[in-house]
Automatic annotation (TrEMBL):
Residues 27-271 form the Orn/DAP/Arg decarboxylase 2 N-terminal domain. InterPro entries: Ala_racemase/Decarboxylase_C, DAP_deCOOHase_LysA, De-COase2_C, De-COase2_CS, De-COase2_N, De-COase2_pyr-phos_BS, Orn/DAP/Arg_de-COase, PLP-binding_barrel. Its EC number is 4.1.1.20. NCBIfam families: lysA. The modification N6-(pyridoxal phosphate)lysine is found at K47. The lineage of its organism: Bacteria, Pseudomonadati, Bacteroidota, Cytophagia, Cytophagales. Specifically catalyzes the decarboxylation of meso-diaminopimelate (meso-DAP) to L-lysine. It comes from Pontibacter fetidus. This is Diaminopimelate decarboxylase.
Length: 380
């Protein structure tokens, strides 16, 4: 796909992010079709990528917005998402963020602690408003993913633990400006083993029973996001298996009459449509492999340094015999390495290198460390 656009890519100043809106549209179309089979509501998790053209596609697909900061709520609403399609999660919502979201009358706050519920009640009371909330419950389900992107275990900071729920219900009795409308879960990200979601369904069913046994009916169940993508063979799996994913929830999640089921997908919708393009600056001889030193680094894509994650790396301009390289960036950190021992065609100064599957948690995590300039963005 990228090679077809080589001329256009070669004219850009590097490094830059390139997004295929065509692949994005195909991905969203499939997600939408599969979710619609079961009347599921999809919210796009803005934190994966909040660029305006990408948000416009999400809106076009009819998705809501899942936000984890006040600025994300703002970006979503300014981008055209209706407040009644915006949900707001996060363990540390500031007063200013909460007040902004209250002013916008968003659909739901996903609340993560008793203390947060108390503060939200206070702030809503001051405005004479009622805040709709879902309790983010920590279901203690292992997502079998990297420990830094596991969020649903009791050791994690996210959500309310099962053993606290009884006291949360007691607390809610005393908070008149809070309306409980549902329960929320999000157990982690880059989950490729679908049986993890089956375990989540089992836990959600148990929690539902627990609430029902206390005569609490929940109009909304939000099972979060986390569906993984294929970083190893992007071209073989450009679009995640949404049919299997939503089908699994349909099979295992017990939905009560009138209940709405919500999803919050980030990575699975946008990861494959983005690529980081970089130019080779230098080749340097090492002891066992050579270093290919790029003009992009952890400032443009921090995932390898932060989560030891794998990204496919391609040399778009060389067709010479293969050699082995440690592909590194220019930043003054040893962790600024995209991957060691990468087999590439012989690589030289000026070659264009593509780092694939960078559409999610790439550009949004960019930093200005080393006073780096913000990389450009192009859309194909
Ligand atoms: C990050 C996040 C998501 C999206 O996760 P993906 O793995 O990108 O699908 C959904 N919900 C919440 C609460 C999140 O924090």
């Amino acid at each position: 796909m990228l090679k077809q656009h080589l001329q256009e890519l070669q004219q850009q100043a590097t490094p830059f992010y390139v997004y295929s809106l065509e692949l994005l549209r195909q991905t969203l179309q499939l997600a939408k079709t599969e979710a619609a089979k079961y009347n599921y509501h999809v919210h796009y998790a803005l934190k994966a990528n909040a660029n305006a053209p990408i948000l416009a596609e999400m809106l076009q697909a009819g998705f809501g917005a899942d936000c984890v900061s006040g600025n994300e709520v703002k970006r979503a609403i300014e981008g055209g998402f209706k407040p009644e399609h915006v949900v707001f999660a996060g363990v540390g919502k500031s007063d200013a963020e909460i007040n902004y979201a209250l002013d916008q009358d968003i659909f739901c706050f996903n609340c993560e602690s008793k203390h947060e519920l108390e503060i939200l009640n206070e702030l809503a009371t001051a405005k004479g408003k009622t805040a709709r909330i879902a309790l983010r419950i920590n279901p203690n389900v292992n997502a079998n993913t990297h420990k830094y992107i596991t969020t649903g275990l009791e050791e994690n900071k996210f959500g309310i633990n099962a053993w606290e729920l009884e006291s949360v219900l007691e607390l809610l009795q005393t908070l008149p400006a809070i309306e409980l409308i549902g329960i929320h879960f999000h157990i982690g990200s880059q989950i490729t083993d679908l049986s993890v979601f089956k375990n989540l369904c089992t836990r959600v069913n148990e929690f539902q029973e627990w609430f029902l046994s206390r005569n609490i009916t929940l109009p909304h169940i939000n099972v979060g996001g986390g569906l993984g993508v294929d970083y190893y063979n992007p071209d073989d799996n450009l679009i995640p298996d949404f049919e299997a994913y939503f089908g699994l929830f349909n099979q295992f999640l017990e939905v009560r009459p009138g209940q709405q089921v919500h999803f919050e997908l980030g990575r699975s919708l946008v990861a494959q449509c983005g690529t980081l393009i970089s130019k080779v600056l230098y080749i340097k001889k090492g002891i066992t492999t050579n270093f290919a030193i790029l003009d992009a680094g952890m400032t443009e894509l921090i995932r390898p340094a932060l989560y030891q994650s794998y990204h496919q790396i391609e040399n778009l301009t060389s067709e010479k015999p293969e050699e082995k390289y440690d592909v590194v960036g220019p930043i003054c950190e040893s962790s600024d390495c995209f991957r060691k021992a990468v087999i590439l065609p012989e690589t030289n100064r000026g070659d264009l290198v593509a780092i694939r599957t960078a559409g999610a948690y790439g550009e949004v995590m960019a930093s200005g460390y080393n006073l780096r300039e913000k990389a450009n963005v192009i859309y194909l």
